[in-house]
Each structure stands twice: as C-alpha cells, then as structure tokens.
Amino acid sequence: MPDVAIEAKELTKRFGDFIAVDHISFSVNGGEIFGFLGANGSGKSTTIRMLCGLLQSSGGSATVAGFDINSQADSVKENIGYMSQKFSLYDDLTVTENIRFWGGIYGLSDEMIAKRQAWAIGIAGLEGREKSLPRELPGGFKQRLALACAMLHSPKVVFLDEPTGGVDPIMRRRFWDLIRQLAEEGTTVFVTTHYLDEAEYCNRIMLIHAGRMIAVGTPEQLKKEYIRTPVLEVETERIIEAMALLDEDDRVEETSVFGTFLHVSIAERYNAEKVIREVLGAHNISPSRIEPIVPSLEDVFIHLIDRQEAEQKR
Amino acid sequence: MRTLLHMLRKEFLQLRRDPRIVQLILIGPIAQLLLFGYAINMDVNTVPVVVCDMDHSIESHDLIARFSNSGYFPIVGYVDKLSDVDPYIDRSKASLALIIPENFGRDIKRNASVPLPVIVDGSESNSASVGLNYAGAIIAGYSQNILVQNFSRRGFGGLHPIQVIPEVRVWYNPELKSRNFLVPGILGTLLLQATVLLTALAIVKEKESGTMEQLIVTPIKPYQIIIGKLAPFFIIGAIDIVLAIAGTTIVLGIPVRGSIWLLGGLSLLFIMTTLGLGLFVSTVSQTQQQAMMTTIFFLIMPMNFLSGFIFPIENMPKIIQYVTYLLPLRYFFEIIRDVFLRGVGFDVLWPQALALFIFGVCILTLASLRFRKKLA
After folding, report:
1. Residue A131 has pLDDT above 70, yes or no
2. Domain B49-153, CATH 3.40.1710.10 — does that match?
3. Could you say which of B7, B14, B213 has the minimum Cβ distance to residue A54?
4. In-domain check, residue A244
5. Best to test chain B binding among A56, A105, A147 (most B CBs inside 10 Å)
6. Cβ contact (<8 Å) for B217 and A90?
7. Does the CB of A112 have a partner CB in chain B at under 8 Å?
8. Domain termination site, one of A218, A236, A266
9. Interface contact A47, partner B, CB < 8 A
10. Is residue A48 part of a domain?
11. A123 and A234 part of one domain
C-alpha cells in the first residue's frame, strides 16, 4: 500500500462552458477515512466519478492506489470498490447470487468467492437470509450488502458516494462502525456525505463549493482554524428581525439561522453577550436565552461558504 | 472468459426469474398467429349491394339476377327512388348501389346504348375497387349477351363475336389469399418486436437501477457486457422462430415450399440486426419508457408499414422506396415470402441475405461503439 492512496493535482472537469470541478488538488493517505463534503451540485459526485473512471477528466491528473486514472484505468478498477447511494444490487437475484456475481465479475476464483461470501454475509449481518431477494431486506441491510459486494475483491481504496442517504439514524451509525472497521483493516475510505454529523467520524474532511476546494483538514483543525471568535446561540421569537439588526452592527462578524435559533459571532475584543443585548434592546427585543456554544462543523462550513461567496462578489 | 460466463449466468438467472418471460416468449407468437391467421383478412369476398330499379322491366330483372347469382353481391335492399339509396351507403349497409334508370329495357330493345349508374362507397378504397371490378365484369357479360341476342334476332344466328379469352394461372398462391402472405410475415414482426424491445429494455433497466454504473467500475470489459446482454435475447428470438414457423405450418396449414433450414438460418441473420437495433436504442434512451417509445414509434411502426408487409413497396413514392432499402425488415419479408410461397433457395435470396448481413454488422458496430463511448 503506498502511503498516498489518492492524489489529485489540479483535477478539472468541464461540461461545455460549465466548470463542475475547478482545479482541485488533494491527497488521501492509506487507511484514512476521508470525508468529502459539499452541497448538491458542488462537484462532489463529479470528482468521485472521475476518480473511479466513470468520467473522463478534462484537465489535471490524479492517481488512485498508485495508478493514473486516465492512462491506467483498468488497474484502477481492479483496486477500487465503489458504492453509490442507489445501493446497486440486482433486485431479482438472491443475496448469495448477488455476491457470487459481483465476485465473479471481479475475477475471483470459486474458492475465493466462497470465502468472501461468508465474509460478506457476516459483514451485512444476513446469516440465515442468504436466499432472500434484496428488495425484501430493510434499507440498512441492503446498504451493508452493497458495501460488502463492492469490497469482495479486497480493494485498497473504496469510494462511497452518499452511502447513507435514506437510511435511519441507527442504521447509519452501524454503517459508520463498519466503515471504521474497514479503515482499521487498512482500506482507504473516500466518502461523500452531506450529513455534517457524519463528517465528524472522518479522519480528515475536505469541503468543496461550486467546484472549488474551500478547506481541508481534521474536523478539530477546521473548527480551530476558521472559527476564532466565540459563537453564541440566541433564542428569540423575532429571529429574522434580530438577525437584520445584528448584521448592521460593526462589532458583529457573522450571523446565521440554526433551526429556530440564531448563531452570532462577535469580534473577540467585545463582551459578546453585552453587545447582543444592547443591539436588540434598542429595538425592544429581549432574547430569552443567550449562551456560548462549541462551534460545530456546520458553523465552520457556513462561515467558509459565506466568506467565499463574499470574495467572489468582490 | 470467466467474467463473460459469470455475466451470462446472471442474465439467464434474471431471465428465468422475470415473470414476463413466458408471456413474452409464448403469448406474442400465439396472439399474432391467431390475429393474422383468423381475424385479419384483406381479401374482399362480398360486396353488399342496394338496388334502385326504376324500370321494372324484364331486362332490369335479368341484370339484377346476374348480380345476385354471382355470389359476390348479396342484395341488401331494393328501393324505388334515387334518394332512398343514400341511407344505405351512409350507414355502410351497402358498399355499392346499382341504379337502373327508367326506360332501361325499352332503350335496349331500340338498340340504343344505355348508361348504367353504379355508385361505390370509396371510403374503403380497397373494397371499392375490388367491387367495381366484379361489377364491371358482370355488366360486361350482360352487355355481350345482349349483343349476341341482337345478332341472332337479326338473322346472324351462327355468328359469334370474336373474343380473346385470358387463361390466367396464378403461381405460388393460387387462391390469391392475403392470409398466405400475412401469416408467414408474422415471423418478421414478431422477431422485430420481441428482440429490439426486450434488448433495449434489459440494458436501460440496468442504467435506471444503477447497476450499469456499478458494472462499469469493475474490470469487466464493455464487449463482455454487450455479449452478456444480447445472448439471452438471441435465444428467445430463436425460440420464437421455431414457434412461429411451427404455428404457421402445423396449426394454420400454410406450408413452407422452400427449405425450413434456409428460413431458420436467415431468420437468425435477421435477429442479428434487431439485436443491434435494440442495443442502439439503449444508447439513446435514459429510461425504459423512452426506450419503449423510441422502439415503437421510430422502429416498429415505420418498419411494419414500409417494409412491404401490409402495403406494397411498388405503390410508394420513389423517395420512400429508396428509404425502404435501409430497413432490414424489408429484406426479411422478401426472404419469408420467397421461401414460404415461392420455394426458392439461397441462389435467389443471397442479395437479401447479404443486405441483412451488412446491415447487422454496421448496426452492431455502431451501437457497440456508442455503448462504449457512453460508458467512458
């Protein structure tokens, strides 16, 4: 296993005039869980599809498991597993038939398929349901079976494109336990998600927005690096009004709505709570609660995306 | 090679489990055999007639008797006024009206030429023209009879007008039954429908469900996917060939005059072209619905209409006739007709076979290239 499992240099994808992925560079270490975050249409899936050889890149280069994605696509395919949010299993083949088929397509010998079949059934927790059809299985099992099928050939790198979409929270948690187990066994996991709580499970995360890379690092690094000012959570009934008032004040750096609360960051040299009460008090708004919070990744991303959009306007 | 075997095994497993499969393999041929064997008939056997006799003479009765005795013209009504004819034609009770004017008999006796109005419902042009032909023949016979009687009345009893009498022999289909051509033609329409549509659907289904994408990230080669997807439908097509030929010959009693093996072999050649078309449709469709629409409206309908199955190609405008050279079904219908009815061999049919072969190679190559390009 090379130390670097995935390396992208200035990787770019254009669709006509539209630049879906704009010169992004990053590297993923062997055995790492690398989270790839971004909104729908930010270029996440396009990137993952280029790395898997599903799409031709229009510029830059990348290697996966040490092989070039454009010139050594066949070697790349032998060394990766891929699973998309659609859980691509054949609904009209039984659990074992699916496993045997995918194992066979990956070129495993019959003995090897038998061995990996036992492993896959175990991973998916489907002992005793070998003869079921996937459509009869609950979503969480299907999803783990799909992952197992994508890993029958013990790939060095596995790409998961929004693997937990539409799965209930308990199953999502169990799925992430499985991902961590695979990473501990040495597999590099490249995973896209838009659940920010899931991003906290990753060793490192990267954020892309409108095709550009915005930030990369461990979750802790990102929180420390980008949120230097304290964040306060404000509870009030006149939330939109309060946000507009705070935005006008020079001492306030950023505001954002989180559910029914307002997150406000104030420049460090001021007493944050005092500033908020002062600004809102002048307009007869008295917040029912103001308290400092530990910033989440969500705060980080909103901050970063706001900052980038502001830069682009300038 | 092992990869291909795994792919094939999977395809057959899926096929076996597909609840539509029996329906598709069996119902198709049986339904079409019944439809074309018993229900559809383009032969005109009877033409209902309404008679408006304004003369009521011996001559008029003689003419009417000739019509009703011919067997082709059941007389559905007698009217006295011209205006009473309309309802019969309007309501499709009669397709032909025979109008015998007043003084018809008197004028004949006076040796005057007599106009005889015949009204035909032209809205069904095929029946109309056949009816007119029959009617024309009866009236001509009647007219000749008058001539002969005239001669003998004037003392030229031994004299007969000179006649040229055609002795027509119909080859290949002596009874001129359209059924004898339509039923063998099923082989063509059936294979077209079954193979193009099923192939396209099977491939697009994998696109829709995401398994195609999953396949592409594995080391499987595009040609292995293509062979794996086409092989089952080749076999279904072969089964349908056997069923259609057996149904036509054994059940409906239309014999194959030529070699059954030649027919079977050339049918397989035809399947090659339809599988290629199916693969091509799959590369231009994103959903099964699109694939279905494309197949039905752009392939099946135009081919059925333009390949000479229902409408003769010679009757089409020149430019459309050239277009028909691009339709594989056109060649296949010629093959079917020639082997079934004419009993000719490969020495006559090799140009059609060659055309099918060229078309098959071209469409398969084109579709495979498009398929690979779509994957990349």
Report:
1. yes
2. yes
3. B213
4. yes
5. A105
6. no
7. no
8. A218
9. no
10. yes
11. no
Collapse the DSSP code of A217 into the 3-class scheme (helix H, G, I; strand E, B; otherwise coil) and give the result.
strand
Tokens 């935005």 locate to A247
Q: Are residues A213 and A232 in the same domain?
A: no
What's the longest Cα–Cα distance across chain B? 101
Q: Decide if B215 and A84 are in contact by the 8 Å CB cutoff.
A: no
Tokens for A138? 């609950």
B3 CB neighbours in chain A (<8 A) are 104-105, 107
Is A106 in the B-facing interface, judged by CB distances under 8 Å? yes
Contact A105 B218 (CB under 8 A): yes
Of residues A52, A78, A82, nearest to B219 (C-beta): A78
A8 with A75, same domain: the answer is yes
The amino acid that residue B170 corresponds to is: V
Whole-angstrom distance, CA of residue B364 vs CA of residue B272 = 8
> How many C-beta atoms lie closer than 10 Å to residue A212's C-beta?
17
Q: H-helix or E-strand containing B166?
A: none
For residues A137 and A282, membership in a common domain is answered with no
A150 and A15 in one domain? yes
How many Å lie between the alpha carbon of A25 and the closest alpha carbon of chain B? 23
ipTM over 0.90: no
Predicted pLDDT at A1: 44
Q: What is the mean pLDDT of residues A217-232?
A: 81
Distance of CA B66 to the CA centre of its chain: 34
- In this structure, which amino acid lies at residue A21? V
Please indicate, yes or no, whether residues A103 and A173 belong to a single structural domain of this protein: yes
Count up the domains in chain A and report the number.
Answer: 2
Q: Is residue A307 part of a domain?
A: no
Q: What is the dihedral of CA A2, A3, A6, A11, to 10 degrees?
A: -110
What does the alpha-carbon distance between residue B142 and residue B146 come to, in Å, rounded to a whole number?
Answer: 6
- Vertex A110 angle, CA A106 and A113, to 5°: 60
| Burial of B374 (C-beta count, 10 Å sphere; 0-12/13-18/19+) | middle
Q: Is B201 exposed, middle or buried (0-12, 13-18, 19+ CB in 10 A)?
A: buried
Q: Please say if the pLDDT value at position B159 is more than 70.
A: no
Q: How far apart are CA A162 and CA A42, in angstroms?
A: 13
| Of the partner residues A78, A80, A88, the one whose CB lies closest to the CB of residue B214 | A88
Q: How far apart are CA A93 and CA B17, in angstroms?
A: 8
Domain extents in chain B: 49-153, 180-375
Residue of chain A nearest B221, judged by CA positions: A74
| Separation CA B82–CA B63 (nearest Å) | 18
Per-residue pLDDT reduced to its tens digit, B205-242: 999 988 998 998 899 998 999 999 999 999 989 998 99
Cβ partners under 8 Å of residue A81, min gap 6? A147, A150, A151, A153, A155, A157, A158, A159
Kindly state the helix (H) or strand (E) to which residue A279 belongs, with its residue range: helix A272-281
Rounded-to-integer distance, Cα B263 and Cα B258, Å: 8
**Rounded distance between C-alpha atoms, residue B220 and residue B228, angstroms:** 11
Examine residue A150 and state whether it is found in any structural domain, yes or no: yes
Report yes or no: A207 and A219 within 8 Å, Cβ to Cβ: no
Per the listing, tokens 């090799």 go with B350
Contacts of B6 in chain A (CB under 8 A): 100-101, 104-105
Strand order in the sheet with B49-53: B75-79, B49-53, B96-100, B118-120
Tens digit of each residue's pLDDT (9 = 90 or more) over B342-369: 888 899 999 999 999 999 999 999 999 9
| DSSP symbol at B67 | H
**How far A101 CA lies from chain B's nearest CA (Å)?**
6
Domain that holds residue A10: 4-218
